[in-house]
Amino acid sequence: MTRLQLAGVSVELGGVPIVTECDLEVGDNERVGLVGPNGSGKSTLLRTVFRAVDPVAGRVALDGDDVRSLSQRQIARRAALVHQEPVTDFDFTVEDIVALGRAPWQGPFDRTGPADHDAVMNALARVNLLDYRSRQIGTLSGGEKQRVLVARAIAQDSPLLLLDEPTNHLDIHAALDLLELVRTLERTTLCVLHDLNFAASYCDRLYVLKAGRVVAGGPPADVLSPELVRDIFGVECTHLTHPTTGQLLLAFSPTPPRTPDPASGNVPLGEKMKSRVGQ
Ligand SMILES: Nc1ncnc2c1ncn2[C@@H]1O[C@H](COP(=O)(O)OP(=O)(O)OP(=O)(O)O)[C@@H](O)[C@H]1O
């Protein structure tokens, strides 16, 4: 049983407010998505769970326990993170990286035991990377490295999964496979997603962040209204129904171009590019 709660969380970085008074909850076995424009604070919110950054106000709690009262090991036993940074440690094999997921369960002088080995092999099999286990991590493609990070989180065997753009680098087949895999893991999940159709079809509930504030929360079909998508992302969106699954499908089109205003320096990107190529 795992529940994540963020209550009134505010974060400052370098003295600048990045996240302001965020309330967010992920219930046991729920899959919750976090969406919002680039720079809106999604990764920063995830980072508060691991105390990579501490809020200046509010509380982050795992199963009711303030994360500030937990050691890093205790947090890692409850929550695993699949982050965005590329893995570049050339000296490590794929198996070494996935085995790091077992560290929270091992004592300082423990050697990797049969149970750890089984967990690592099982995790590699779940992401179809068993044949890659002896490869140096630096020799893998971006999508393969992403799957290694997911395998590490599976091996970590914590009830809460935090995923920061897990479909980054993945082709459409691999992306759908990965989302389906995470669904079958049946863990409590908070997932940052940029693809709103993935968010709509994969998540039970969504939160929308804008400039560090939670501006909407609820079931995807309610949250991702054409009005909200226009307001938050600046694009037009139409709700369709998938012909076979019956799920919500969002179709996007650009908003009508804004009138360029060179005097204010507020020139849309497309206009800037045209002027650069002399059109
Ligand atoms: N150490 C820092 N000092 C100052 N500002 C920072 C620092 N780290 C991040 N930021 C800023 O915080 C804001 C939120 O960043 P964050 O990575 O949380 O956004 P995000 O919503 O995850 O973005 P993206 O979708 O692009 O990954 C950004 O404007 C970023 O530039």
TrEMBL record:
Ranges in coiled-coil conformation: none
GO molecular function: ATP binding; ATP hydrolysis activity
InterPro entries: AAA+_ATPase (IPR003593), ABC_transporter-like_ATP-bd (IPR003439), ABC_transporter-like_CS (IPR017871), P-loop_NTPase (IPR027417)
Keywords attached to this entry: ATP-binding, Nucleotide-binding, Transport
SUPFAM superfamilies: P-loop containing nucleoside triphosphate hydrolases
Region (Disordered): 253-279
Domain (ABC transporter): residue spans on this chain: 4-236
Pfam family name, one: ABC_tran
Name of the protein in question: Iron complex transport system ATP-binding protein
Species of the source: Streptosporangium saharense
